[in-house]
Amino acid sequence: MSGGFIQQILSPGGGFLLIPFTRAVICCLFLTTVSVFALGVARIHMFILSFLSAGMWFALGLFQREYSKAMQSEITDTTSTSGKKVPVKRAPSVSNAKRED
Question: Are residues 33 and 46 in contact, defined by beta-carbon separation less than 8 angstroms?
Fold first, then answer.
């Protein structure tokens, strides 16, 4: 089972699966820096690190939400009103592109 998960992560676009884990780690970083700030150790540094980690946590949440919206709209764009699938036009991949030297 872990081989399948690792295979999913290493496939193109698989890094999206790590976002919840990354947000949890950033939350732990925030709690640590706030705790050290409250204890009075390097207060200005811990305040800045707390601010930056909170911003990273918030930005990852926004990215995850917008990415999910984009994927949902792509799924709904592939079906027309008649219910038939309409292919989405994309740029050709490197292997299909014509190379001109």
Answer: yes
Q: Residue 48: which domain range?
A: 23-68
CA 76/CA 81 separation, integer angstroms: 10
What lies within 8 Å, CB to CB, of 50 at 6+ separation is: 30, 33, 34, 37
pLDDT tens for each residue of 5-41: 788 888 887 778 888 889 999 999 999 999 999 999 9
Is 57 inside a domain boundary?
A: yes
Any domain includes 79 = no
Q: Is the pTM of this model over 0.70?
A: no
d(CA 18, CA 14): 8
The count of structural domains within the chain is 1
**SS3 state of residue 90:** coil
- Determine, yes or no, domain membership for 55: yes
85 strand-pairing partners: 79
